[in-house]
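Quick look at the format.
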Amino acid sequence: MKGIFSSDSVRRGILWLAILACWEGAYRIVQWRSDVFPAPSHILDAAANLLETPLYLSEPLHAGWPWRSMYGPPPPPSGLALWQRPLVQAPLISGARLLIGFAVSIFIGCLLGLALWRWKQVDGMLGPLFLGLQTLPSVCWAPLAVVVVGLDEWGILFVLVMGSCFAVAISLRDGLRSMPPVYQRAGRMLGAGGWRLYRYVLLPASLPALTSSLRQGFSFAWRSLMGAELILMAVDRHGLGYLLEMGRNLSDVRQVVAIMILMILLGMIADRYVFAVLEKRVHARFGLAGQ
């Protein structure tokens, strides 16, 4: 909490509020088209509509603003529970897919990364291929997923895993290569051999590299998931990518921008308050905090 309310954070928050106020003020004065370049009030209105609690922030000031429209009574509520509303349900569905798919990609990526680091022949044969697969845009896996796996949840998980496991493998391999060779020699001198060398020496020494690879792999996994949900829309459960594509189909740029902002915020929160914290603590534990 101390970091959130630090003086630098407060200054940045004030600056962003000033930018948003100028943005909204320019819309009120110039009256540009909201279907081309929405103002902050339009984006908030779109988010509120997806929560099925409509606001009328983008309307001119009038009696009852922003809770009552100046153009007539609001539509009747659907009666859905809060967790069933699109802007709540979609992140939960996407989050569940991310947890499952990223766990699988971590398992596969760690095995591949260890193999690349342990055997030079394997690295020489598969390392360049994995690097090329890492640079392949994740949405390119979607057509293959439809043909091979199917247009269902397994197809989305396939795209997620294939779009992130190679990044985890390459990052882990590079991190393990930076591990001092003296660790292995010291472990053998102290009697650690075979699986004991890996269990008590190499595995703990690889944790800093592993946490760094997880952070990089998450960014690939998040992008892969959003791309898969954009293309594989026929699945029963609809995530954030589906809402983004529906906004495009309806030519509702306000909903598109609102979902994009939510995607960015969720990715930033996960990176900063989960993976960055984990990486910082592990590096501090091993005396690498200053690196």
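Next, a different chain entirely:
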Amino acid sequence: MTKRPLESDVDFIRALAELLRENDLTEIEVKREYGEADALDVRVARILTVVPAAAPQIAQPAALLGAPAPQNHGTLGSGDPSDDPGVVPSPMVGTVYLQPQPDSAPFVKVGDVVAEGQTILIIEAMKTMNQIPAPQPGRVKRILVEDGSPVEFGAPLIILE
């Protein structure tokens, strides 16, 4: 195994960080092979604060015909859900699934009590199903996402009380 100068690795990492900033990226991961038993694995990431855009309000056809409205996932408050102390933010960009299989019961419903670490939903990212655990125990106060909807990193998913 040959020794690489540490300074060149530091310069390489600084260059990756600069690429990250210049190209407005959130993450870069690189593996440099120096020899058969010598490599450098580097992951440079930054955390961005994402402010979800307000979705346009569209009248549901059932509501227009006087039929019962679709079930709400919780009581809507007047404040920003991101400010709630019990908010569970999305740890990644992807597609949310509220149940393990299309025809099965949801992981949680409004009013359910969850334990810390219990799976509360799945986010599919790059064809990988990622189970999202409850960060603390509590009761599900609101579910802020719809099944199959896309989410951004940091977007509020569920509120626990």
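Residues 3 and 38 are 9 Å apart (CA to CA).

See the schema section for token definitions.
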